[in-house]
Automatic annotation (TrEMBL):
InterPro entries linked: EF-4 (IPR006297), EFG_III/V (IPR035647), EFG_V-like (IPR000640), EFTu-like_2 (IPR004161), G_TR_CS (IPR031157), LepA_C_sf (IPR038363), LepA_CTD (IPR013842), LepA_IV (IPR035654)
Chain residues that bind GTP: 16-21, 133-136
Family the UniProt entry places it in: Belongs to the TRAFAC class translation factor GTPase superfamily. Classic translation factor GTPase family. LepA subfamily. Belongs to the GTP-binding elongation factor family. LepA subfamily.
Keywords: Cell membrane, Elongation factor, GTP-binding, Hydrolase, Membrane, Nucleotide-binding, Protein biosynthesis
Protein name: Elongation factor 4
Keyword Cytoplasm: no
Amino acid sequence: MDRSRIRNFSIIAHIDHGKSTLADRLLETTGALTDREKTNQFLDKLDLERERGITIKAQAVRLKYRADDGKDYILNLIDTPGHVDFSYEVSRSLAACEGGLLVVDASQGVEAQTLANVYLAIDQNLEVFPVLNKIDLPGAEPARIKEEIEEIIGLDASDAVEASAKEGIGIHEILEAIVAKVPAPAGDADAPLKALIFDSWYDSYQGVIMLVRIFDGTLKKGEKIHLMASGRSYEVLKIGAFTPHPVEMPEMAAGEVGFIIAGIKVLQDAKVGDTITHLNRCADKPLAGFQEVKPMVYSGLYPIDSGDYDALRDAMEKLRLNDASFSFEPENSLALGFGFRCGFLGLLHMEIIQERLEREFNMELITTAPTVRYRVITTKGEELVVDSANKLPDVQYIDRILEPFILASVHVPNDYVGGVLALCEEKRGIQREIKYLTSNRVMVIYELPLNEIVLDFYDRLKTVSRGYASLDYEFLDYRPSDLVRLNIMVNGEVVDALSLIVHRDKSQLRGRELVSKMKEFIPRQQYEVAVQAAIGNKVVARANVKALRKDVTAKCYGGDITRKRKLLEKQKEGKKRMKQVGNVELPQEAFLAILKVK
Ligand code: GTP
């Protein structure tokens, strides 16, 4: 394969600006799809496609294109996931490319959420060029949007292609621009092998499938490979590319993109970002940028019906097969019974897993408020890792507690900078830098404690910037901090699932807010219920949920027995989504009350 004829690129776009439609057009125009496949969006099928016993994830598609210069080119379209929790995966996918197509809806303009990925691409020295999509719409304003791209992002948009993925306008020009603007890959096909894993997944027939970009060297079927970060060695069983149909190839050389199957049984052995080299001719050092992805956010997941415990564990095991960054271990709570403590990359990842458990596996769950991992040094000098308030030792045994800090970069238009700064200060942030990127675009950089981010930072950021701020963050370090355990008591009993680790300066306020929120969520019972917040033995806030005055059945006039029964039935239904704690019933909302306070 002649490297000068390869182009590796990705499409960067905001949701709904037409990425999938455009990708399908590119496939169609280059003859990659059959007539039947043209009718439905091929690349948008999240349901994993099964064909010839292999799962296709259209994360990297190889297209053949004869350009106007009469030469044949191979265009590798590499897709990227689109959220801050997955920014590491995005960065690895972008690292496999030399160029990026920035697709902007010509009737909408640049959207904040696109920016984080554009900057990731620019930081990695990708050649990024804009395409204005949806010019068929009456509201399209290509001239204004070009100005906006230059103003906000600082990219030259003077010769941006004007296209309509829907109508098939400008597709030829886009393909020509890819050939002309995206640099051909560099690399040495004779050097020791260096291949980047930018995606991997588990297939029940083939084992783990890895998508790779070869930077140096040549890999042939049957050769022995070594994965430098995981330290494992395997034999290559299959090499190929998705066109989008899987096509096997005898070898793959520097500059090329494709899949490798090597009989790997667990996803954890084929980590995104790892470097593949030859076992007997090892590269001297791996490609830069590998990170061990570690869960950042933890929460408890409990079945509402304790009989579902085994089913929940089975469901979680299935999810973990294909998600190396999700972890769980058994945990039990006095209030909630047997369940699991789960680790996630971030809040969105947590929501995705919860939703999949509920939808795909029909689990009814109670989840506890998210927390981060603390490091606790005991008075005996031991170090403990604590991912839940209940694992925090009593105060007299604690020497100090360290909490994780992150470096947050917020891109925001000028007008909203004030709001963003106030929010970061409120969240115990330490200002690092404020950079003016263009006359209207600012980058605010703060060091922030992660525990302040996991609760509601992202939502608040969107509110103070009217949706225009984008957030990107990376882990920094652990720092000593004055943290305490805040307990919530219901009728004098500590509800362990509600305990929190908070900064001392905020504990009073948090306690008061929590107690008043809890009061709203706890339904009235036959007797008065006292809700208290306490640090150690000291009660910092209290509220009472008044007793029910009237008998519930009193509403039923005339003593109609069937009506009375119905009402009692209904009450029983309602109880299913409650957990009995001591003599009080608590609804799910009460366990997440912390997410509702500011
Ligand atoms: P996600 O898959 O949600 O990330 O969105 P996407 O960016 O892939 O957008 P998608 O291709 O699904 O397009 C979003 C909507 O815009 C769909 O209803 C498309 O039919 C429509 N659309 C895409 N391209 C064009 C275009 O050129 N003109 C018009 N009028 N509509 C378009």
